[in-house]
Here is the input.
Amino acid sequence: MSRALLRTTGGELALPGRGAALVDRADGGHLVVHPPRPVWERGELDAGELARWSYLVAAAGRAMIESLPQLAGGCLNYWEAGNWSLHEDAAPRGTKDPRGARRVHLHLIGRSPGAADPAWRWGEAPLFPRFAERHAALARHERLRADECRAVVERAGELLRDVYAQGADAVETSRPCVACALPTPASAIDADGRCADCLQAADV
Here is the structure.
């Protein structure tokens, strides 16, 4: 499950779950943008939803490029897929109808000229793991750190306000969780300043 960093009327900017980052932070980093409601295909969004989601995608992508030192001289790949959810070995096993199994989300994948992973070599198309190999392949990737996420969220918020004219009512305030320091939408932090992930971890 991805971890919400910023929520707007255009959707949610999130950090991939542990062991789910497609690329290591040092090789460019990886964030995910979910649309404002679950849909199987982006054409299911109405015009306003699609526009606001596009604002969030553009602001988050520009914020990654401007905020992450590892992306100096680099760029982003914007990748919408959902293939693994349709694999016959994905739960529940068997053939799936995309309308029921697929959920649109856009991967923001940093491409660094200094990437060390051969699968993410600069100037080459990325090499994604096969379904059965995905857990082992992704487990070695480090997610973006809390300070990097805070910088991206802060800059994305500025861009949403200043470039895309999204008012305070359209962008929920995010603040760091007192335990993990990741930026967190205010509605997802408890009275003591902790996020749901840290609360769950404390209960285990």
